[in-house]
Design brief:
The complex is a heterotrimer of chains A (130), B (358) and C (117). By secondary structure, chain A is α/β, with parallel strands linked by helices. Chain A is built from two helices and six strands. The chains are: A alpha/beta (130), B alpha+beta (358), C alpha+beta (117). Chains in contact: A-B, B-C.
Chain lengths: 130, 358, 117
Amino acid sequence: MTQEPNIKVILASQLRDEIRTMRGQGQRLVQISATRLPDEVELTYSFDLNDRLTNFRLVLPGEDTVLPSISEIYGCAILYENEIHDLFDVRVDGLTVDFKGNLYSTSVKFPFGSTKSPRAEPEPAPATNP
Amino acid sequence: MSRTVIPFGPQHPVLPEPIHLDLVVEDEKVIEARPSIGFVHRGLEKLVEKKDYVEFVYVAERICGICSFIHGQTYCQAIETIMDVQVPPRALYLRTVWGELSRIHSHLLWLGLMADAMGFESLFMHSWRVRERILNIVEATTGGRVIFSSCKIGGVRRDIEAEAITGILKEINEIEKDMRDVCKVFLDDSSAKARLCGVGVISKTDAYDLGCVGPMLRASGVSQDMRRLGYAAFMDIPVEPVTRSEGDCYARCAVRCEELLQSVRIIRTALAKIPAGEIAVKVTGNPNGETIARTEQPRGEVVYHIKANATKNLQRFRVRTPTFANLPAMLSILPGCELADVPIIVLTIDPCISCTER
Amino acid sequence: MSYFTMSKLALKWAFTKPVTTRYPFEPRQELAGSRGWLVFTDENCAYCNVCAKKCPTGAIVVNRAEKTLAIDHLSCITCGCCVEVCPKDSLGLIPSHGHSQVTKDHEVFQKTGKAST
């Protein structure tokens, strides 16, 4: 069955060191996901070795915080980090391949809310009558 | 030598789904590939805010048309873990049978598309002809050919009776003979081998470092299959991952052909061992908690990260599909290949772009 | 390495019956469990609105005062939730494909038993 997530909370300054340790152990990057909370963005990094998951949690408070990129250590992280920038308006520092906001084209610029405005409102849909 | 930029996609005869690549070529050799995705982005992850967690099964199934059943199954598994629901064993076996039927139909679809990319149209038609019989079995048992709608939180919605089980086993025996014929053409025929052997080689360390999953990883020699985690009925039915060591397109094709036959064996075992009992338990209340669920889709490992906060809408629903993990590998094997090999390489990762972009 | 592997198979399959139905020369065979089209009978319907609440796409609209039930077949995903939850068994899924529409209208059923589109 699915495993209980064992999540270790870390700070942004510890991120690169922890990821280098994972790389040294030969762990595979599984996913990077982001959640919008009322005042902050919470990131979860998951790694796998021999079918066991190890997860890290990072909380980015408020506005103008910068996420250090791990794409120099794990090259495949570029897709995840570009997506987080496009959907959540999080500035990522040090991307090896930067799409500059053009990975997804959406009608609303940052669909999951940006650090400037907590919730993005889409344009109202045209009224339909049944 | 001068360089030309050739746009590949988003509409192209070999692509099942839209993806755009700008290929920088020098005289037929590809130097660089610049991707541009986002044509099928539907914003499904944000839909959790509108649909409650019970109805969301129908949205989760519709993330992709080819791998739809296993998306629904993984979603139900994740919510059942958060809410601590014990699914009855008969439901677990039924989910396994439908999951393996889904895997067979997906691999046959891919074999057809690969034959089409090679230009081998008659083999494409015959692969899909075999797939039609699988879809008939699926429609007779679940009601839909593509979107099964048979998983729900707490179990499954429909049962398969004993006479239907004997009918399915008989049908599978005949389909297996046709599948072996189709696989024999892929693996032995000289023109298929000339197009597939030695194309798009990826080494074992590269495949692991780039984060590949599924047949991409197994064809390079890494033995990894999420069915070993033991979800659904796989606790009772052990699965040995099918691996090859060459790491080229031929090896990936061979891994998928062998997985077809492995799925047939799993279906036979599951239908022989299926226990009697009820097919669902009633689930009430709201989920509260967080989990990460992983299952093995035909294309690889899919990861569902779900957070719930005791309301009827989930707080966060995040899907990491296998094609998303395989895309960096595709972009790394494109440079250095011939222009005519580009469709083979794009299709060898089994791209399901609607899964990738949700 | 073998040559002409496909020719043997193509010859064999040229003389086997096709898997698909040769519609319209043969009639369409409907599989018994197939979820094709939603139908409604208003004999026992209590207009309780449970089907409309359960519908994931909002394809059913019930008006209790006027005793009408409207189904939007273009939004209906034939999931069968309304069929399972109806206390009077008034809704059902039949295996046929139903009829095509040229306008995006609901199919409205009025209590007298006559259907109008």
